[in-house]
Amino acid sequence: MDITLGTWNPGKVEWMSRGLAGTGLPIRRLKEGQVPEAEETGSSCEENALIKALAVAKHADGPTIVAAEDSGLFIEALDGFPGVRTARFAPGSDDDRSRLLLERLKGVPMERRHAVFVSAVALKMPGGFGKVFRGELRGRIAMEPVGDKSEGYDRIFLLPTGISLASLPLEAGEVRDHRRKALALASEGILSWLDERRGLI
Ligand SMILES: O=c1[nH]c(=O)c2ncn([C@@H]3O[C@H](COP(=O)(O)OP(=O)(O)OP(=O)(O)O)[C@@H](O)[C@H]3O)c2[nH]1
């Protein structure tokens, strides 16, 4: 048995591989052109992660566990926007999109700037079910970008301590808590599925 990662994003391949390494299973990446990219039409990260995992499972080689991830930033004062559209609600980079969010939040005081990063990791077991695991990181949106240790939404996301994510360095391939939690739960899900399966054989 092995795990196939449902993403073409090289950074995501790296951190998902690290996050699922504790399962002890070999990890396969998709081959060029192996799977047509799935349209992310879901209304939650969970739905989109499952859409990606099921699309890859249809084209996977042999029995494999497919793991796919979807994440987003949900801002309370904007009714959850950008949510599932975090990576693509406007052209340009995540830094450009962050600036647009700050403009939309102009005049909103700190006590109404609550936000949450959500990560969902979906697993599609061979011949069986799909299951989704969720991780969250709660905080607030800064008044202006802060920190230079990383880019994108990290610069506008403040932890409850008031420190921005971009002020905290990350080791190469390391991820923030929402992704780490979702991957840890998915790893536990894989290990218990393997245990159950061994019991049945
Ligand atoms: O600065 C950030 N710090 C974080 O901690 C964080 N967590 C999520 N995100 C953003 O959320 C979107 C996910 O998009 P996403 O899951 O659709 O990925 P993707 O389309 O690249 O990959 P794939 O799985 O479709 O291959 C992207 O804009 C990410 O930058 C973060 N940004």
UniProtKB/TrEMBL annotation:
Cellular component GO terms held in the UniProt record: cytosol
Which Gene Ontology molecular function entries are recorded, alphabetically? Answer: nucleoside triphosphate diphosphatase activity
**Family annotation (SUPFAM superfamilies):** ITPase-like
Q: Would I find Kinase among this entry's keywords? A: no
InterPro entries, A to Z: ITPase-like_fam, RdgB/HAM1
Task: Give the GO biological process terms.
Answer: nucleoside triphosphate catabolic process
Entry keyword set: Hydrolase
Q: Name the family the entry cites.
A: Belongs to the HAM1 NTPase family.
PANTHER family named among the record's database cross-references = INOSINE TRIPHOSPHATE PYROPHOSPHATASE (PTHR11067:SF9), INOSINE TRIPHOSPHATE PYROPHOSPHATASE/HAM1 PROTEIN (PTHR11067)
Name under which the protein is recorded: Non-canonical purine NTP pyrophosphatase
Species of origin reads Cohnella thailandensis
